[in-house]
Amino acid sequence: IVDQLRKEDGEAIYRLCGEAHHHHLVCKSCGSTVEIEGSALEKWAKAMAEEHGYREVGHLAEVFGICPSC
Questions:
Q1: What is the Cα 28 distance to its own chain's centre?
Q2: Which of 5, 19, 28, 30 gives 20 to 30 Å between its CA and that of 64?
Q3: Mean per-residue pLDDT, 16-25
Q4: Angle at 52 (CA atoms; ends 61, 45), nearest 5 degrees
Q5: Is the per-residue pLDDT at 17 higher than 80?
Q6: What is the pLDDT of residue 40?
Q7: Which fold has domain 2-65?
Q8: What are the residue ranges spanned by the domains of the chain?
Q9: Rounded mean pLDDT of 4-11?
Q10: Contact 44, 59 (CB under 8 A)
Q11: CA angle, corner 67, sides to 63 and 70, nearest 5?
């Protein structure tokens, strides 16, 4: 599966990923990405949706920072 990510400046990055639900860490400097799992984020998204009466909830999350190589 190919995921499309957006850098903070709007540039599209494409990354070959696994099929399991995941999120990404994206380097603001070089654009490198790392797949991450986010169980705390999953719980938060579900709780927020339930609090507002939403169902069949999905979400996308990208976390931006500077990678160790940069």
A1: 14
A2: 19
A3: 74
A4: 25
A5: no
A6: 84
A7: Dna Ligase; domain 1 (3.30.1490)
A8: 2-65
A9: 74
A10: no
A11: 140
What mean pLDDT comes out for the span 49-54?
95
Write down the residue that tokens 């696994």 correspond to: 18
Residue type, 61: A
In the chain, what are the helix, strand and coil shares in percent, each to the nearest 5? 20, 35, 50
Phi and psi at residue 26, to the nearest 5°: -125, 125
- Nearest partner of 63 among 33, 15, 25, 7, judged by Cα: 25
Tokens 């991450």: give the residue.
36
> DSSP character for 13?
E
Per DSSP, 2 falls in state E
CA angle in degrees (0–180, nearest 5) for 33-24-69: 30
> Using CA atoms, how far apart are residues 11 and 33, in angstroms rounded to an integer?
14
